Amino acid sequence: MRWYIFIAAALGLAGCNEYSRESRVISAIERQIQLPTDAYPLRAYSRVYAYAPDNKVVAIYLLPSKPDQRLCEEEKEIERKENGEGASQFCLPPKGLIAGEQRWIKDYQMLPGAHDGGCKFIDVQYDLNSKNFLQVACHGEVG
Hints:
alpha+beta, five-stranded mixed sheet
């Protein structure tokens, strides 16, 4: 009986460690980040993060959109085809995003796409080795 308790506790801690690592990365990024001059306050954005190649983190910060069922279904169909898990700017929660939310997804290629320019979307790239930002720019700008 004690072995079952030990194994359950070990599995629970393993899950917590991964969550804690991602939470620490998000906290470090959000403590350091300086948003572009034209950006909205950080709390206005939904922020979606993922690990990327070369020990980097990529993120998109976006202002949540009004839910749109047609666009939501299109995003879900793309995810089904790609076998991915993403976050939606067009679906209602929990799939959809809300202002102030931080979310980590498994595949950086499944980050929400941005079709507009300007500071409604902010592209972020962070190097975990150097702990420096490679990009923090309103979508469509080089930064």
